[in-house]
Every structure is written in C-alpha cells, then in structure tokens.
Amino acid sequence: MLSLFIKEKVHFFACPPCACPSIHVRFGQLYINEVVLGTAVGVILGPYCASIFNPRAWGGNINEIALEVMRISLAIGLFTIGVELPRSYLADHAVGLLVMVVPTMAFGWLVVAAIIYAVFPPINFISSLVISACLTPTDPIVSAAVLGTFTGSLLSLYALIPPTGGNFATKHVPLPLRQILAAESAANDGLAYPFLSISLYLSVEAVRGVAIEKGILIGWLYQVFLGTLLGAVFGIAFSLLMKLTYRKGLIDRESYVAQHISLAIFTIGVARTLGLDDLLAAFAAGSAISWDGQFNSQVEGQVFSTVLDLILNCACFAYIGAWIPFNMFDAANVGITPWRLVVILLAVMFLRRIPSILLLYRWVPEIATWKEALFAGHFGPMGVGAIFISTLAVSELPEPESPPANQAQLLAVTLQPIVAFVVLGSIIIHGLSIPCFSLGQKLHSLSRSLSRSYEVSGTQSGPISPSETATLADVERGTTDGNFSHEMVIVGQMPDLRSAAPIGDGTSVASAHAHTALPFSAIVSVCRPRSPCAPHSVACERHRWPTNPLSDAVRSG
Fold first, then answer.
1. How far apart, in whole angstroms, are the C-alpha atoms of residue 280 and residue 137?
2. What is the pTM of this model?
3. DSSP structural state of residue 7
4. What is the pLDDT of residue 537?
5. Do the beta carbons of residue 548 and residue 524 sit within 8 Å?
6. The CATH number of the domain covering residues in 34-396+409-438
7. What is the per-residue DSSP string for 448-476?
8. What is the tens place of the pLDDT at every residue in 13-49?
9. How far apart are CA 309 and CA 305, in angstroms?
C-alpha cells in the first residue's frame, strides 16, 4: 500500500573528526501529504511513464468511470468535514462563510473566464465561463490534507501516524482560519453546480433568456436548495434515530462509525437519483448529524472512517495522476499550447481568490489580519472537485469530431486538458508549499546558527583567546530561535566536565557548568523542532544533557 507520509532525515558529516569538528545536521520532517504522493505515484505508473496503470485503456465510458470515482471520494470527504466541524458551526459562522463563498466564487468565475477568453482565441466567452466554473471551487480533499482537521477522530489518527502538512498547519495557522477554510472548501464545492449549469445552458440554448431561467430554476432552486434540504433532513433524521436506538441499547459506538460512511453513500445515492446537488447534500448531512455534538462525542477516538477516507483519497489521486492527458497539453490544432496553459495557471493562482478576499476580509470575523486574508486567498487548491465538475460538463456536451465542427465540440475537446493542467499545477504549488516553507525555515535557522559559531582561530594544541571562547551560559542564551531549538553538539576541544559535577544523574548542564569556558570550534548548532519536554536540546534550565552518541563521548571525557 502506498505510504501516505514521508519523513526525511539527512545526516551529513563535513569531514573526519581529526581534521575538524563533525557537523551533525538533522532535517526533521518534510510535510508531504497523500495528495502529492498519490498524484506522483499515478503519474509514474500511468501511461506516460511505466504504463502499468492506464484508466483510459479500460474501455467503456471513461468519463463515467472518472465521474463516479471522484463522486465517492468527494462525498465521503465532504461528509467528514461536516462531521468534524464544531457543533452548529454553520449557523454560528454563517456571515463569514457567506462572504467567503458567494462573492469570492462569483468574482473568480468571471475573472478567470475573461482571462481564458483572452488567452485562448478559439474559445468564446460562454465556453470560457464553462471552463472557469470547473476551476471556481476550492477542493476539500486537498484542503483537508494540507490544513488537517481540528476535532474528532483525526486527532487520534495523528497520534498514531507521523504528522504531515496538517500537523504543521495546526501549529502555524489559527484554528478559526482553518475551520472557515475547511467549511468554505466544502460549501463552494457543491455550489459549483449552479455556475456550471448556467454556463452550460448558455452554451446549448439558443435563447439567452431561456438559458438564464433554467439556470436559476434548475441550477439554484432545485439542485442547490433542495439538495441542501435533503441532506439536512437525512442528517437530522439519522441523528434522532441513532440517539433513540443508542439509549435503548440496540447499537453501540461502533455503529456510529459505520454510519459515518454508509450515510454519506446513501445521501449521494438518493440525491443523484433525484438529480440534486449530491455534494452539497453530503456536506449538509454531515453537518446536521453532528449539529448538537453528540455524534462527534460518540466517534471520538475511532479512526476507522478517517483511515478509510485517507485510503480513498490516496487511490483517487493516484487515479488522477494516471488519468491526466499529458498528450493534450500541446495541441495547437485546438489552440492549446504550453505557454497558454502556464499563463492560465499563474492567473488562476494570483487572481482567482486573492483580490476578492483581501477586499472582503473585514466582514469575515474569522480572518483577523491582512496576512491571514492573503493566506486564505492563496490557499484555494483545485483537485478532485475540478476534475469532477469538468467530467460532468463533458458528459453534457456533444461528442466531438476531428476537427471540432462547432463551439460546443471545441469546448468538449479543450475543457479537460485545461482543467487537468491547472489541477496538476495546484497540487504541486499548494501541496508542496508547506514542505518548502518548513525546509526554508530550517535551512535559515541552521545557517544563522552556523554563522554564529563558524569562525575558528585556535586549534586543539594552540592557545585560545578570550574572543574564541564561550561559556555554557552563552550557549544557553543562544539556543532558541523562532519555532526551532538548536542542539549544541560538543565535540573537538573540550575540558574535563566530569570534575565539576555529575552529569549522568540528570543534573542540568547549564546550572552545573554555567561558567565552563569552551572554544567556539567545539560547538556546532543543530536545528531541531522546538519541544519543551524533549530530552534532546539544551535550550533552558529544564532541558537535560543530550542523549546521543556525541553526548556520551563528552560524558566519557
């Protein structure tokens, strides 16, 4: 099974101990999530590399297969987000959520459509609106993988599995901002339906008035509102039913875990049969079933549904990696060229959300500063939702000829390659933004530490001037920096510390040898994540002597 997480530790020894002090560098964890790994595995195993896994060679209707794979993954992910939100979250934060969802989606829809229309001359503005509708929603799967979640069973899961980007986000992104971004990603994924509906009706209907009427009546009133109502009714009904049966002893806590998956599948099945917005129905059902917090308390500590969700996400992104039509990224006969795709990707990254949220964040109580607004604007990843909406759109368009005979056929040919390229770029940019930020922090902290202790004038046999010495008290004062602490590995020239006080019994080095002079050449700072209770750093009076082979060498003289 594909490994969902990666921990990279690099150990580098600059030169032999006889020549100069050894440098022991440890880069902690690279916060790479299952989205990036799954997509990379799919690309490697796909038809353009190893040619082991090729969904397009399965036969049948490839769009129908892709549509259902994306639907299942999205439904379970949206239901999980709804369950993991705090009790009555949608009612308590309705204002901020409404401001972030509707104006931001409408702004991004129109702006991206205008850019596509300008960059791709063969595509008219109505077809550009269809493509833009596929790129409008924020993907909940990528958001959950990068930001992590905040309550319930995932906390127990992160206690069992090494942390990734979500764990990094819990330390650096405020909880209200993470919650509003998760709720927004779930809500606007379902709200992509009306934007797509009105765009498609404008493409296929001859009369504009009829297209707008159908878009409002079918896209908004029937699909969105009735789909949301259906999901809420299902969630409330199942919540009351499970409370009653639990009180009578007919079910136990494990039954709640089973309902986490079965209710999501049941909801999208009924909504799909009725032609409603199944994604919004799944999110509404998840929010309603945990509205009073009782469902959350029952599934707390249970990781089955979360593990299943992670496995499905990993398989889904591996499928996407193998499904991406790389051969269509350079199809000049339909107006698709690499430079045009790159321009669209950059425009989407910078103009789709950032300007709107920077203008509106003052009306969103969960966003406190313009820096948080900038992060919220940047963090609008595209993934499963965009592939799902684009596949749904293609299934409603006519089968294209070669070459395309009209604008509808041209849209059917160009829609998925443009969306796939932007999705691939979003996975790389958003999926690797936290690993790059974390690695940059560690390298910057390490370079600053080494620069403070790099100058070496004395040797083991030569005299050491006062400017080349430092006390352990000086070391102690310089061991913390930002979010990382620096382990002082003492090698090379060292006095006999055993005569001052016993160290093996846990006596603090900083208190026992606060004025012991050590040469700078004997001290190398190593970057570690800060942990007040970890026994690996001499960062303050509470930290003990490092327990590693180099420390043991110091203790033994």
1. 12
2. 0.74
3. -
4. 39
5. no
6. 1.20.1530.20
7. HHHHHS------SSS---GGGEEEHHHHH
8. 333 333 333 333 333 455 678 899 999 999 999 999 9
9. 6
